[in-house]
Inverse folding.
């Protein structure tokens, strides 16, 4: 400790600032590519990610509108919370909550768009049995694969109708049918869909009875759905316990806070109390996340 004090006295404050600045510069220079990639992913990369996922949902978005929306739900919402609480005279609390709201507002669009894409994939998965049955019946009736796909487009609802219709549109503009099916597998990356696409592409090259293969795939999908439903039933209790444990701190806080509000006043006005609340919330969400990971078995 004494050696450090002597070194600071010899170098001086300006020298220490220069050393720190030079060290920071060298660190940023060495890892500049990674730093800029991280900044791009957290700024414009978020907009690009949302636009790419929106295409999978067959939703056309204006890039400028997405940018304004991201700024509104992050910086705009955080600034509004800060101003409202600051008007009440609680500047520190307003600043902390404003930063939290801004951070959550900027981070929430990705999980939200992922949820919508996952829900669409599950809906497609649930429709595959009926869709492949229609394909099989159409081929048995003497139709070619394009006509059978058109029958699925006409008879089935979205999203399978949209996906199969996109395949037909791609084929009409000159894209080979094999590539159209491969694009379908990329847009809807499920094991059943990949098996369906691989079976069609192989049988179209080598020859075979597509109708029988579709019937086999339908039986496999039915068994997979039955097994998945059984797993969800078994893990439902664990999920409920996880949600209950995650909600308990907030419920207890509301009960005690409503009965004696003065006891918890320091939690919102004192910096230590605010930091404690933030840590408690972070630990609670981490625990809930771990519990959900434990009870989750496999993917649909």
């Amino acid at each position: 400790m004494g050696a450090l004090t002597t070194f600071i006295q010899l170098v001086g404050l300006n020298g220490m600032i220069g050393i720190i600045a030079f060290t920071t510069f060298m660190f940023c220079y060495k890892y500049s590519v990674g730093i800029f990639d991280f900044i791009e992913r957290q700024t414009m990369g978020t907009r690009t990610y949302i636009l790419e996922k929106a295409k999978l949902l067959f939703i056309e978005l204006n890039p400028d509108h997405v940018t304004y929306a991201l700024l509104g739900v992050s910086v705009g919402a955080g600034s509004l919370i800060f101003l409202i609480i600051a008007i009440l005279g609680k500047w520190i609390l307003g600043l902390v909550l404003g930063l939290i709201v801004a951070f959550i507002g900027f981070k929430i669009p990705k999980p939200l768009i992922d949820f919508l894409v996952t829900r669409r994939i599950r809906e497609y998965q649930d429709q595959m049995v009926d869709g492949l049955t229609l394909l099989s019946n159409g081929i048995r009736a003497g139709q070619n694969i394009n006509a059978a796909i058109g029958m699925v487009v006409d008879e089935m609802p979205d999203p399978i109708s949209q996906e199969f219709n996109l395949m037909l549109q791609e084929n009409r503009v000159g894209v080979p049918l094999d590539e159209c099916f491969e694009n379908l597998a990329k847009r809807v990356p499920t094991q059943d869909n990949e098996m369906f696409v691989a079976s069609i592409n192989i049988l179209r090259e080598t020859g075979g009875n597509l109708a029988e293969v579709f019937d086999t795939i339908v039986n496999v999908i039915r068994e997979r759905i039955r097994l998945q439903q059984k797993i969800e039933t078994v893990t439902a209790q664990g999920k409920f316990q996880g949600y209950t444990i995650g909600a308990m701190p907030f419920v207890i806080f509301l009960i005690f806070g409503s009965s004696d509000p003065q006891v918890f006043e320091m939690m919102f006005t004192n910096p230590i109390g605010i930091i404690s609340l933030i840590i408690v919330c972070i630990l609670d969400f981490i625990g809930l996340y771990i519990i959900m990971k434990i009870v989750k078995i496999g993917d649909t």
